[in-house]
C-alpha cells in the first residue's frame, strides 16, 4: 500500500485537521437531514360539468387535476393559475405542495386551457362560482382532513389572477379556512385605471397606502397584454383537444395511463399556439364575455372608465368582498411590479384587518416585472398554509420585506430581508415617515400634440430583465425636454431605506393662454447618484388626473402618492421628483397643452421608513448535530488563525526600513510542478525594480506570494521586516495590481476608487484620492463611467487604485498589457512620477525595452530561478558588446571583422557595434587605429535585450 505523506509543520497539521473536521461535519449534516426523498405524487384528471350561470341550463366544462399526497385525508389547497395560463402552468407548485402532505386541486379557469366558457375576470357568478362548486366535488371524495370543529381544512392560493380568485372565494365561501394570494390586486379599477392624486391633505398610517382616487389614467400597455392573452386562449364554446374521461388516473410520474396527463399538443394553426385552436376570426372579443369586451373597448378608445365599466371592475375585484374575510391571510406582493403595486396589497391588508381577519404580509423582490416566488418563498407560503389549517408549525412574523442591494456580483444583486412583528398601521400606530425637503420653482411642462414623443419609464413585463441590461437600462427614465417639472432634494448624510409609498403636495394650474379643464400627469421619484446618474426604482410611475382646473390659471393643490418601492438610497445620493406630461405605457390625451407645476407651500416629501431586524431561518432540530460539528470546525479554524496570527507578527527589526526581502522562496504545486525555486533578492527604498523574465518564468507566482494570495512551499517574504502570510497586517502598506481591477462599469472612475477604499475599512482621509489621481493623470475622465474608458485609461485607473493611501511599496503585474505605444509611454510616466515621491515600485514585465526605460534595478528570472540582478545599466553592459564612434564606419567594420573572436559586427550611422567575446576593448581600439580609422569614442554597448538573451537563451 502506498504511503500517504503527512503534513510536517504544526500550522499545516492544524489546517489538515480543520479540513478533516469540515468533511466529517458535512457528512453528519447530510446524514441527519437526508431521507428517501419526496413521496410519489398520484394525480387524477377530470372534467367538471358546471352551470354557465346561476339558474342557467347551459354548462361549462372545467378541466381539473387533483394531486394526492402519500396519506389522506389531508389538508387541501385549491391552487389557481394566473391570467393567460392554465392548470399545467401551476403543475410544479402543485407537486411541491402535494409532497409536503397537501391534497391539491388545480383547474383551468373558464376560457383557458381545455376549459370552455367565456372569461369574466373572476366574475362572482362565473369563475368564483366554479371554484365553489369544485370545492363541493373535492369534499365529496372524503380525502380532505377536518379540524376539531368538524370543518374541512381547506385553503386557496394563487398568483395574480389566481390570487384575486382566492380572495373572492374566501369572501363568498365560508368553507375556506386560509388564503395566500400572491402578486394580485385589490381593486381592478385602480390596478388598470389608477389615479395617484387626492384633493385632501392626508397622511396614510400604513406604509404603501395608495390614493385610490376616482377617474384615473388608463394603463393601456398592461391592459393590451391581458386582452391579447385572453383573446387567443381557446376556441369558442368547446375544447379543441380531446378530454380524458372523468376520474381517469395518472401514474406516479404524472403521465396518464394510455393518454397524456396534460393537454395533448395539437398542431398549431397559423399564428396560434400548440394545443390551442384559434378564436373565431370574426369575433374581436375573443374569449371574453360581452361585458368585459365592452369595458375594454371603452377604456382603449376613450382612455377613461365610465360608470358601467367602473361598476364591472369593482364587482370582479376582491375589494368587493374583503370586508367579509376573517380567515388567516398571507399577502405576498412584488416590489418589482408596475401592474399591481404594493398599494394593492396594502389596501387588502387594511380591509381584512378591519373585518377581523389576521393578516401577514411579505414583500419580495419579484412581481409581474421581476419574477414569481422562488423555492424559499414558496416554502414560506406552504408553512403558512399548513400552520393556518392544522395549527402546527410557525406561520412567521407579521411583516417582512426584501431589500435588494444596488451592487451586483456576477450579475446577481445581493438581497437581505427585514422583518417586523406587524405590518405598520394595521393595529394602531402609524408608519414612520422622514421629511425630505424638495427645492425647485414652479415650472411649465408641455404636453405635445398626440402626446408624442412620450417619456419612457419601462417595458411592461420586461422591466426586471431590461433593467439588468447595460444597453436597455439607460433608456428607462428618459423624460423629453420641456415635458416635465423637476424638484431636487439635498444629498443624504447616511443611507435612507425607503419602504413604501412616499407622498408630496403639489400645486397644479392650467395655462391661462391655453386653458384645459384637466391635467394628466406622471410623477416619478428618482435615486440620483453622486455622479448624477438617475435610477427609477422598480420603473414605477404614479399617474394622476387633476380635474376642475380653473381657466384663469388659479392653481389646485393635490396630494400625490408615489408608487410603493423598497429602495436603499445610499449616503451621498439624493432624491429627485419629476412630474411629466407623457408616458408611453398610459393613455394620454392627444390635445396639446401647457401646465404649471410647483410644490405646495410648506410641502415636503414624506418618505416611509419601516425599521425591523434581519430575518434568519431557524435551524431544524435534525441539524443540531451538524451545528455542533460546525462549532468544532470553528474552534479548529481559530486555532489555525492563531498560529497564522503569530506568524504574521513575526518581525525582523533590522529589516524594518527595507521594502522587500525574499529569501529561499519556493512554490511547488500538486503533481510536482515547481513554479519558483530558491529565489532570493532584495529591494531597497526608492528603487524601481523590474521583475523580468519570459512568460512562465514564475513572475506572477512570485507576486501572488508577495501579496499573500498563495502560500509558499518554502522560504519567506518580508516587507518592512514583517513576514508575509495571508491577511498579514503589513499588506495594508502595499498597493497592488496583480489579480485584475474588477471595476464596476456603470460607476465612474472616482466612484470605483471610493468604493474600493471603503471596502478596505480605512478612514477616507487616508486615501489621498487627489494625489493618486494627479499621478495617474486621468483628468476629468475620472468622473465618467468606466464603461466609456479605453484600455489605457482602465490601466491608469488601476494604477491609481494601487496608489490609494500612497503605499510605501507598490507592486504591479504587467501594467502595460494591452496598451499601444503612446499609452505605454504614458504609463511609464505615471510610474516614474510615483517613484519620484520617494516610494518603491516593483514591476513585473516581459517587455525588455519598458523595463530598461522605466526601472532603475532589475531581477531576471528564468524557469522559476534567479539568473541575474542589479542595476539596469550594469546588467546591460555585461553583455560583452562594445560600441565605437568612428570617422569611417565601413573601414572600422572591416577591421573588426578581421580580428579573431569578434562577432556580430553591426553598423548604425557613425556607430559600429561588435561582440568582443572577452577580447579587451583596448585591443579593438588599437586594431582600428592601425587600420587608419579615427576613433572618437569607445565604450560598452548598453542594451538590456542582449544581456537578457545571453542570460536566458535565444529560445526564450
Automatic annotation (TrEMBL):
Residues 234-247, 264-280 have a biased composition (Low complexity). Residues 234-283 are annotated as: Disordered. The keyword Nucleotide-binding applies. Keywords: ATP-binding, Hydrolase, Membrane, Nucleotide-binding, Transmembrane, Transmembrane helix, Transport. It comes from the Bacteria. PANTHER family: ABC TRANSPORTER, ATP-BINDING PROTEIN. This is ABC-2 type transport system ATP-binding protein. The lineage of its organism: Bacteria, Bacillati, Actinomycetota, Actinomycetes, Pseudonocardiales.
